[in-house]
Design brief:
Layout (H helix, E strand, L loop, with lengths): L2 H4 L8 H11 L18 E5 L2 E4 L4 E4 L14 H11 L11 H13 L5 E5 L2 H16 L3 E5 L40 E4 L4 H11 L3 E6 L12 H12 L2 E5 L11 H6 L5 E4 L10 E5 L1 H4 L23 H14 L4 H22 L5 E3 L4 E5 L8 H6 L2 H13 L2 E2 L6 E2 L6 H18 L1
Amino acid sequence: MSSVEKAGERPATTQADYYALAERNLPGAGLGGYSLPEDVRFIVARGVGSRLQSVEGRWYIDYVGGAGANILGHAHPAVVEAVQAQAARGLHYFGTLNDVAVELSEKLQQIIPCAEKITFTTTGSEATFYAMRMARAFTGRNNILKFEGAYHGNHDYSAVSVFPKAPANYPVGSVDTGGVPDVLPSTVLIAPYNQLDVVERIVEENKDDLAAIIVEPVQRIIFPEDGFLQGLRRICDQHGVLLIFDEVVTGFRLSLGGAQAWLGVKPDLASYGKIVGGGGPLGCVAGRSRIIDRANPKHKGKPDFAYVNGTLHGNPLAAAAGLATIKVLEEPGFYDKLHEESRQLTGALQEVLDRHGLPAIAAGKRSFWQILFMTGEPHNQTDIMASDQARMRELDLELLKRGIYVLPGVRRFVCAVNSDEDFDETVGALDAACKAIN
């Protein structure tokens, strides 16, 4: 008997029933940082290909894509087959190696340019957290430099100047949440993305206690200007500072080798999230052997040991999904097709915006896209803050009403199984949404 039946209530069958339970049990009736307004929210029952279906049977074209990890869409046959086969052998082990995780580690070492070695994590947030820990252990320094507006997960070291209301007094940022110890933000320095001169000044002034610079190669929807990431590599080398790429989103999406391969810049460490597990609970930190080896259990008790541990690290179910996903990504022409279709979509969306005379752009490259109410591509978080975010949210909510699943104000992704029908419906929905807000 379910808890609902025990309480004398009928089981949840409709969307209203599920929301009644969610509102009783979950803060904000959500699963984290997002809670949609009542007139557009829905409960997912399943995902198939490029679409999600609600418990009431309505289909949505999914451009959230599991925060970018579902590059093959939902329930890809090869991934489903691999997961089913592994499930029959066991869902979870702990304390020793499993064969699937070892196979995945070898594949990751082959395709990630900086990966002399890797260590598994459960999530992308863990991966960025552990990368910072290893950088501190390796260098013996305390501070990390991150970029204003950059998201590196849900841990305390990330929760500085992610959602600033005003530009930072560089390198001092603002804390985005309660519960962060007062001392912690002093160890996180803030710089503006795409401004090498400011980065160079901050590093020069703080080099003696700066362990690493962590950067999203593509910060949300902001792409690096020519020479920016190369400049970070130069500055880090000059001052003995480590360079960490947060490839939780860009990894396997910009190219099979991620931003490192696409842009030709090799970091010292790189963090990956759910794409490593084909969308399942798995991530990793990849990088130089001398740094990754700080997590070797044989170093326990030494000052430069960096503790990395988790009961789901190397989870065999996720590892099987990851191996199956990578095999599809390795097919010839996979990325050429994905990125060309994405380019055509953003071009068609821009035509709609222009036809309605809206001061907005269909921003993005490769398989990233987002509609921003500004006249040119953003260069940093200050540009994003100067855009008309209220109108952007209004348009995104109108898209949701028309069956286009986007999170208001959040970048979105094209997946490999989006169809011409998807794109035609998306263009039509945008046309209707533009009429609604004009």
